Amino acid sequence: MISEQINEILNEQINKEFYSGYLYLSMSAHLKELGLNGFASWMRHQAKEEVEHGLKIFDYLINCDSFVTLKQIRMPEFEFNGILSIFSVVYEHEKCITNSVMTVAKRAEEECDRTTLNFIDWFIEEQVEEEEAVKNIIKRLEMFGDDKAALYLMDKELSKRTK
Ligand code: OFO
Predict the structure, then answer these.
(1) Of 10, 32, 113, 155, which one has the greatest count of Cβ atoms within 10 A?
(2) For residue 142, what pLDDT is reported?
(3) What is the pTM of this model?
(4) Of the residues 53, 100, 121, which should be mutated to test ligand 1's pocket, given the most ligand atoms within 8 Å of the CB?
């Protein structure tokens, strides 16, 4: 049985995941406008993944006989200051999501809610992978970002992401 408080933070988490999808989709549109189709496609896959994360929590609540409360998704806000700044925003955002997932785990631990703890473990591992992937892109952008040929190759490489 999921407590009211766990229900509340999991519903908040659904909203954060959907917001992440919204944010990354708006970034994808901007990258596409810049002609960086590979980066745009990578970001679109990322957006889709975030919506899937939201749905994973949505299904968990329903399967546990708890309630889903979908809240308003706010408008994505970020400054378009070049490609490196876009990925820096993604990295900072992912760190916030990691904190948020950790808060769910902490709360579940306090309540001895083993089921939610098990469930949220998947997200904790996923966050390590996501932060790592974005950090790698940032490192390469910092190294080669001004080199148009390198950027072209990176764009080509990122276009290969399929999920
Ligand atoms: Fe990128 O974060 Fe979902 O969980």
Answers:
(1) 10
(2) 95
(3) 0.95
(4) 53
